[in-house]
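Slide 14.
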Amino acid sequence: MRTPIDLRRADMRARIATIAWLLIAPAILAIAACSSESGAGMPTYKHNTKPSRVFALAVRIDNAPGPFASLHGTMQYDIANSACLPPADFFSGVQTTPISTFLPISLKRTGEGRYEGEIALDGLVDDDYFGRGVCRFKAVGPSVSLRATGAAGETRFVVRLDAEAVEAEATKTKYYWRGGYPRDPRVEDFPDHGLDSPDDFLEPLRDELFSVTIQSSKVNP
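Slide 15: predicted structure.
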């Protein structure tokens, strides 16, 4: 049976706990608000409707091991000045707002194993998206991913071109082992980025390769 003293002690502990909560609650809410700033409320970045640095992108597949029914192209841009982003996460110190943005590249088939599209190095508009100053976008470059049918588990054959190579109107060829088509025998959804030369493969595999070439050329305004 609880005595009056016990009841008074319990009441005092409850009052102390209530006062402590009233004192620390604002701090907890403030911390949570700071923490939620990073990565919260992602804005929609503005597309440049009149880009001046436009390039045609040509993709060519040679000695294909089979059809590629799924082609997915993206153009990557990074925010170059991270100071324009919301603060890093309060607890981890990690910047959770993505600095990279990917715009789709529309690739049109122009022939057997031939595709074309357009990209813009100035495809996004610099602006104050987070209320912390103007974010400046830097083009990273285009990449194209090819799959046999697009089904889950199939190998993704990837070819990339960096922005400097795009501007230089360069050509890049990557070589891939045909045995990884349509699926790698060891790894599901394997991202195969290929090698730069047939000589980079073991000699027994050099007759079992196909290639993907990506080339850029300036589009005159």
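Speaker note: The longest helix spans residues 4-37.
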